[in-house]
Design goal:
By secondary structure, the protein is an alpha/beta fold. The protein has a domain at about 10-115 and about 145-155 and about 180-200: 3-Layer(aba) Sandwich (Rossmann fold). It has six helices and nine strands. The strands form two sheets. The chain has a seven-stranded mixed β-sheet, sandwiched between helices. Strands 8-9 form a two-stranded antiparallel ribbon. It binds 5-O-phosphono-beta-D-ribofuranosylamine. 5-O-phosphono-beta-D-ribofuranosylamine binds near residues 19, 20, 93, 177 and 180.
Amino acid sequence: MTPTSHATVLGVLISGSGSNLQALMDGCASGYIPGRVALVISNKDEAFGLQRAAGAGIPTQVIRHREFPDRESFDRAMDQALREAGVELVCLAGFMRVLSPWFVGQWKGRLLNIHPALLPAFPGLHVQQQALDAGVRFSGATVHFVDEGLDTGPIVAQAVVPILPGDDAPTLAARILKQEHRLYPLAARLFCQGRLSLQAGRAVVEGGAWDGQAALINPEN
Ligand code: GRF
């Protein structure tokens, strides 16, 4: 990217800690993501991510879902705030509300989510426990475009981590979260570089690289 290139305007929706928000803000600040976070919206007053954003000088809004009569009117309020901020890409980062089909339609192809499992395995909640209960040897994180379903949209990028003897849901969650902080900035970078798009229901990445020899095996010996 040249210095005169357009910086894509990001809006981030959160409900909690906002460590993925932090990774996105850091990625923008370092220039890794050719974009800038213009607005952070939380549906919860106590979300720590609001403090992270304020600390970085990024405008925040709390839009409380309980103050709206239904899902769509809440979503319309968020939509208006995002448009007023000039947002081009919306990133859900630990945002714990299901979005209405109306909102998803408005932002189709410009709406990303991160989920702490290798979708389509283990959608929904308590995903680390789901993975442990299933006895799989790997889990990970997925960034996907959001569609009308719950964690069902076209997959953009995935990071794989092993499940190790003695893991419980918190240890596995921590291992996955560490990779989320690499994966979400990567996906945002691809979008902001104009290399990621939604085409005919698929996430298409231009020029993605892969070491043809690489594989993960667990246990290794
Ligand atoms: C992450 O595990 C993310 O995958 C899930 O919610 C968690 C949010 O963590 N959707 P944080 O608020 O970004 O720290």
